[in-house]
DNA sequence: ATGAAAGCGCTAACAA
DNA sequence: TTGTTAGCGCTTTCAT
């Protein structure tokens, strides 16, 4: 069967396409009677509106984009869950784009958004965030854009984050309190704001306890961290580490195995992670649990708010949702 | 600045929009010279084609849909990685839809695809798969459709699966060989083909070892499995279980904790799971590792093949990619 | 309350 | 090789 169009409905009912369109969209300038006639026929013929015709005409697509570095990471997966929940409720469609930490890919993706393909964008930037600053600033002028987690400070728009500095401060303090004196912060990028925040919190705790920065330091890992991490742990003589990404946390377990370090005896670990298996690891992992679902939900909610009412100034709508420290055996005092 | 259109380019260059269009699409019926002139100006003015105008006209959107039950599950997350890798390479966009195991939501999503919003669909169905059979059969006649993992047998199209029956057979055999005599298969739905396959393999192993079906049985869990699972493990007197979903695997660890069962001494566990943390669990988890990334990639590759050449009959393109048993301590012989 | 008509931006016959 | 023209299916003034 041919695809049913608004024109076919119009012919069958001896009405104009304009009337059909209005009737289908529940316009109040249509009589109740014809409205019903139209909608009944539409249902009968299984009419499905062509979204592209509508998008072309209305210049809005009921579609948003989610741009993230990686999807096989429980933080991002949960965040998408939050985003999707809101989108589904609002009848929006969700396009997913993965950057795999490549700012080049990120740029290409952002460029495409100038086409009007999406009505709004939710993004958690690449580690090489600095490269995308300009594109993002530009884009945020054309479309509602909301950052979540990995933000770009310089871009004037809403940012949904967690209390990274405070969370790192609390994590560091916890390590100190269970006896660590040589703590390493395993970080992922010097450029990411959230990393800088965590580092701030880390140093604040060190300062507060008057621990020397010579023994307590930040190490950066980009892609394949395994070898480097083993080296760091071997040479670094750390008695405690904070892994600021989920991947790094498991890398620590791997490295510990390789180096035959006993956790938590030889080395205590805290991971920034939403791993559902954290409590079943050996040893169970003390985590900074980030409210991923809520962050996704908040970001999406805010985006839709801006989409609905263009007078919402996203710049003033940033929001911080606190993380929570779950203390487990990987930081058990010996 | 106004959005740059093909018409603006045409005016600036004193050419027709048709010529511009052809030049931008590298048509061979355009002289090298004008092609360059057009493309140069396009770049200069930062022209970005309107995808919706093009989609409306061409009746193709360079967009595919991925429909899955859940995203916070390492199998599906990895599968998406595979899909996205292929899609990005081919210049396609990926719409994500989550059903959260609701066949009602699934139906609504599938219905929308009749609009021509997407050129093709990759799907892993809900546990209540039976409900969607009809819609899927219908849809597969209008669009290229490829199942991955959770298939609908009755629908005549390509299916990318793993060797579920064989994998379950091997897993069961392994449990028997390490001494289990009362094995429980923890299943998720009676309707899912992959579950039925796994059950087949399970029974095959039991038969081969002449173990009575009275002691070795299949239990179904739908949503919130925790309480039910605790009951099952307490009453079932199992000495070994196979958790056929990732969630169920962690549920077993939870229940074991609650019931103070020691793994693997009191109960041995195998999980169908792609958890990257499997080796670091306590005890490390013996897993049936499913080739999620490859399955996603294969499904997407096949879909694009069908999209490119409409004579590819998907029905004959099904594919099975083997899983692998990783033996770890959760099935250690005592 | 309904309809005529224009047009969103692009592509593809067909002509020239 | 380039241009003319006619839409894709829908929404939206503006008339009636």
Automatic annotation (TrEMBL), chains A, B:
Keywords: DNA-binding, Transcription, Transcription regulation
UniProt KW Transcription keyword: yes
Listed SUPFAM superfamilies: lambda repressor-like DNA-binding domains (SSF47413), Periplasmic binding protein-like I (SSF53822)
Any single Pfam family the record assigns to this protein: Peripla_BP_3
InterPro entries: HTH_LacI, LacI/GalR-like_sensor, Lambda_DNA-bd_dom_sf, Peripla_BP_I
GO molecular function terms attached to this record: DNA-binding transcription factor activity; transcription cis-regulatory region binding
Superkingdom, taxonomy of origin: Bacteria
Domain spans labelled HTH lacI-type: 4-58
PANTHER family to which the protein is assigned, alphabetical: HTH-TYPE TRANSCRIPTIONAL REGULATOR GALS, LACI-RELATED TRANSCRIPTIONAL REPRESSOR
The protein's name in its UniProt record: LacI family transcriptional regulator
């Amino acid at each position: 069967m041919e695809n049913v169009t608004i024109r076919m409905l119009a012919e069958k009912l001896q009405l104009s396409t304009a009337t059909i369109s209005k009737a289908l969209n529940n316009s109040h300038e249509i009589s109740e009677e014809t409205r019903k006639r139209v909608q009944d026929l539409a249902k009968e013929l299984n009419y499905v509106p062509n979204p592209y015709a509508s998008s072309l005409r209305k210049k809005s697509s009921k579609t948003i984009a989610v741009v993230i570095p990686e999807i096989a990471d429980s933080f991002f997966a949960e965040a998408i869950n939050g985003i999707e929940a809101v989108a589904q409720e609002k009848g929006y469609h969700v396009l997913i784009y993965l950057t795999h930490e490549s700012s080049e890919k990120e740029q290409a993706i952002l460029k495409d958004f100038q086409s009007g393909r999406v009505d709004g964008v939710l993004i958690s930037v690449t580690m090489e965030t600095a490269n995308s600053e300009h594109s993002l600033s530009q884009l945020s002028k054309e479309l509602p854009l909301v950052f979540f987690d990995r933000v770009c400070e310089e871009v004037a728009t809403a940012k949904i984050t967690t209390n990274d500095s405070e969370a790192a401060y609390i994590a560091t303090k916890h390590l100190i309190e269970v006896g660590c004196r040589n703590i390493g912060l395993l970080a992922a990028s010097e450029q990411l704001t959230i990393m800088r925040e965590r580092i701030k919190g880390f140093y604040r705790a060190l300062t507060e306890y008057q621990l020397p920065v010579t023994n307590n330091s930040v190490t950066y890992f980009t892609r394949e961290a395994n070898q480097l991490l083993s080296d760091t742990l071997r040479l670094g003589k750390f008695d405690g580490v904070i892994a600021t990404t989920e991947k790094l946390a498991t890398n620590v377990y791997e490295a510990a195995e390789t180096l035959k370090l006993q956790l938590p005896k030889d080395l205590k670990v805290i991971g920034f992670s939403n791993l559902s298996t954290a409590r079943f690891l050996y040893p169970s992992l003390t985590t900074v649990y980030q409210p991923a679902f809520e962050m996704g939900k908040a970001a999406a909610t805010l985006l839709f708010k801006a989409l609905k009412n263009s007078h919402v100034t996203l710049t003033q709508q940033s929001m911080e949702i606190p993380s929570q420290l779950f203390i487990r055996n990987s930081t058990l005092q010996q």
